[in-house]
Amino acid sequence: MIGSCPSEGGTGPSDERTSWASLWRLSSLGLEIGFSVALGVLGGWWLNERVGGDGLLVLIGLVIGVIAAGRTLMRSIREPTASETTDEDGPESTN
Fold first, then answer.
1. pLDDT averaged over 10-residue windows placed end to end, the chain, 95 residues
2. Is-contact 45 62, C-beta < 8 A?
3. Which of 33, 47, 80, 87 has its CA 20 to 30 Å from the CA of residue 65?
4. Cα distance between residue 60 and residue 62, in whole Å
5. How far is 12 from 56, CA to CA, in rounded Å?
6. Is-contact 4 28, C-beta < 8 A?
7. For the whole model, what pTM was predicted?
8. In this structure, are residues 43 and 61 in contact, taking their beta carbons and an 8 Å threshold?
9. Boundaries of every domain in the chain
């Protein structure tokens, strides 16, 4: 049940925020990976049409897109999530 009390076995508001934050992070990661590969392929296709090649530039664009997607994935694995960076006491107050 949405908005149920944690003592009733439901999820609390902070659990829902964490779930939404995780969902947002994963969906943006998927979009970044997809756009990286698509941009590489489209760039290679465009160059191939300009030069009149035999498709080699599309393949090179694909490889560049996959490398860019891999870098994005590695960056997201290395970067800590918001829940890992906060203390048990919560965020520090600015007094």
1. 49 74 86 95 95 91 96 87 55 54
2. no
3. 80
4. 5
5. 54
6. no
7. 0.63
8. yes
9. 29-80
